[in-house]
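FORM 7B: Structural annotation worksheet

SECTION A. Query
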Amino acid sequence: MLGALDGQSRLTAAGHEMAALPMNARTARLVLQARKNGHAALGCCLAALLEDRDPFAGSDSSCPEGCFPPDCDMRLRTDWLCREPEQPENLHPALRQRLRRQAARLARRMEIHGDIFRAAAQSAAHTGSLLALAWPEHVAVRQNTAGTHAHFLLRSGRAAFLPVSDSLAREEFLAVALPDGAGARSRIRLAAALDAECLEDIFAQDMQILDTLETTDTGRITARRTRRLGALLLEDSPLPAPAPEQCAAVLCAHVRTHGLGCLPWSDACIQWRARAMLLHQLDPGIWPDISDAALLESLEEWLGPELHGCLRLDEITPERVLACMQMRLPHPLRLRLEEQAPSHWRVPSGSMRPIVYGEDGGPWLAVKLQEMFGCRETPRIANGRVALAVRLLSPAGRPLQITRDLAHFWRVGYPAVRAEMRGRYPKHPWPEDPLSALPTGLTQKKLAAHSPAQTQSCRIGHSQAGRKNKN
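SECTION B. Predicted structure
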């Protein structure tokens, strides 16, 4: 961070210059940068102060007149070192003279001429920027004031504080040279004020701009743009138009966290998916896997494009979810799906009845018993590999029997059902031989009202429906 080493831990040109000075790396960096910025005299005075003990350490309000308060502001120490006292110095006069000699020696070494103390006093406003360059990880921002302390956060992530009586306690930014203690929370001992513009100039290359997108429990995106310097949050503002791909990514992550149930599944989509999954179970090498696990793993592939630019999950409709699901199948398989796992079945009466997929026990259809007259074989799908469970209903739509073997039902079950139901539903046909009876959803009276031609048409329709289902 001081620029002394490169990526392979070798000395840089600046590192060689720093190593040539008789001081530690931080103050060497401060002096060299001060000379580069035209504040060499100030750099020499600050180096002399920082390399020795703090002249204000241990001083307090009990000191005699002329004694400085225990304030952390480095500019007070620079003023103490550089000014010409109007009366004999009461605070460490011997130390002051020694530090002035050290500053003067350093100035001669760096070929700085003239009255360095006057020049340093005139450029004292740059103290904060020089400290920030020498202790870049200790740049601090004020968090709040609580009780008797003003709380700060250092760029490194450490917490620090000042007494509210300190002259820097109300500053927004500080360049800290000496945080006291190695714990998570330290008292600031030496620092200088640092204005925001100076902070921007020094650390512009180190600042990170981050767009953060999060979702609420309901799937609504909240987007903010933040600018940070290490642990310091310098700016936090709403992001009105996040990138479409970012929206898609964060909404996919929301679905992955909350499960597929947060998508708007329609009954049509649930059934379509169950039909495709049935064929996948029969032929996994041909039909793609669209189970929950497979869909969650590939969200960005099938759902991501639909979510580009969406700011809420509910912007995607059930129709679009179905379309996304259907795109999981190549076009030829979509046609085969309708053939091998149809959504409806034409029963012998000619009516189309929905097939229900995805439930325990396999696919099934519900139909009134009279509409299945004449049907000798159990309906089958998937090229005859899957028998449908037939839920036979009374004329009132109440369940009578569930079977996957119609031939067995007509032989064994139907006589008992007929004996019980024909007295309860006398208006409907209950023939002794259901296999030779005309399948119908009509009452006997309405059925008798049909002309012979109509009856023959019904029989022809029944025959054609049987052939179509068989094909």
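SECTION C. Observations
Residues 60-68, 453-466 have pLDDT under 50 and may be disordered. The two ends are 78 Å apart (CA to CA).

SECTION D. Sign-off
Analyst initials: ____
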